[in-house]
Amino acid sequence: MSTLKYIAGYPQHVQDQxxxxxxxxxxxxxxxxxxxxxxAVRTDRQLxxxxxQIKERYLRSAQPLHKVIYDxxxxxxxxxxxxxxxxxxxxxxxxxxxxxIRIATVFRQAPAEFLRMIVVHELAHLxxxxxxxxxxxxxxxxxxxxxxxxxxxxxxxxxxxxx
Length: 163
Ligand SMILES: [Zn+2]
What we know:
- Residues 96-153 form the YgjP-like metallopeptidase domain.
- The chain has 163 residues and is of the alpha+beta class.
- It has helices spanning 12-24, 27-34, 44-58, 106-109, 112-124, 133-142, 146-162; strands at residues 65-71, 83-91, 94-104.
- It has a single domain (38-158), classed as Zincin-like.
- It has a three-stranded mixed sheet with strand order 1-3-2.
- The radius of gyration is 17 Å and the shape is globular.
């Protein structure tokens, strides 16, 4: 029996429940019922604007976003549900730190709520590098249902791979 890598960090009884849904072939339906709605954030420009809107609303004081793009080479799990790079550029005489956010292309087709979740995750990294308590507080500040969304995203990715 293969391990379900996206939910390997969750308690065994949770993994067993997911395994049962997978075996019954109903995980996809369960998710589709809850997350039926897609989104129209297709281009990198749209992704930047979408991310910037959430940042303006919740994280105004964080450093400016330099770039936000979809990246086909990103693997969601390996890069800890997205990636975040601090890029230092020399601008005139001073060194200016700017931030870029890369979002795995799987989110281009994913339900709207999962795009929102991953963008919130990456925005929180503007202030917190680690997945610590302060990090998750930022996430739930931007999306009150963050923990449920992250869990369901892991189910969604699990289900995509099993097809
Ligand atoms: Zn992260």
